[in-house]
Specification:
This is Inositol-1-monophosphatase. This protein folds into two domains: 4-140, Fructose-1,6-Bisphosphatase, Chain A, domain 1 (2-Layer Sandwich), CATH 3.30.540.10; 149-256, D-Maltodextrin-Binding Protein, domain 2, CATH 3.40.190.80. The protein is built from seven helices and 15 strands. The chain has helices spanning 4-25, 45-61, 90-95, 162-175, 188-197, 210-222, 247-256; strands at residues 32-35, 42-44, 66-69, 73-75, 80-88, 101-108, 111-119, 124-129, 133-136, 139-140, 153-156, 181-183, 202-205, 226-228, 240-243.
Amino acid sequence: MTAPADFARLATEIAREAGEMLLAKRPARPEVVQTKSSPTDVVTALDRAAEELIRARVHQARPDDAILGEEGGATGEGAVRWIVDPIDGTVNFVYGLPDWAVSIAVEVDGEIVAGVVNVVPRAEVFTASLGGGAWLGGERLRCNTGVPLSGALVATGFGYQVGRRTVQAEVLAALMPRIRDVRRAGSAAADLCAVAAGRVDAYYERGPQYWDYAAGGLVATEAGARLGGMHGRPVSPDMTLCAAPGLFEELHDALAGLDPERDE
């Protein structure tokens, strides 16, 4: 059986190669080739090219593994599955903003055992393996602890559909008086790694998909954070909530009274 650390090493190699390709080929303003859930939810040709590269490298190294990718969907079957977001933060990528990432996780029998988030413009590669901790370069990551909700710097994001964004803005407006401040970077994977690195104290968002939070979620939990959904449910597109124990519960309870899982 392949060890989680070995999966993490392979995922790191592939994420680095995909990031180098994206930097080398990114034009001054990448062309949008497709929209998804709304006209502002975009896909570029390089999203597809990066996922094709990642799939090819995974198949070369481990031809029997399954893959779930944001652009190419699910392929293959088996106990080992790779969860791929070739560019998390595509709008940032299009605009030349620095928070976009190649995100690769490895799932064995339904459990994430390795995760890599390459925040390419920042030259930061976050890695984690189950039981092996979370790392940025040679530094082991620890999330901030002992922070009350009133002192918490909280990251969040917004969906692409108008009805969802309207509710998310209402929820944030009600939450703002109860926290230190808010940050919106534009990449769920990068936000989860920011929790792990102590750059923000917490993160919550309705809408991120499995490929958005699979790798970053492991980085965060291996750094000591708690990851989950509302009312004891696991993390899901309904809600991604991440913070150190204690703050997690405070933020959860503040959000629970605002019914954050609804859409207009």
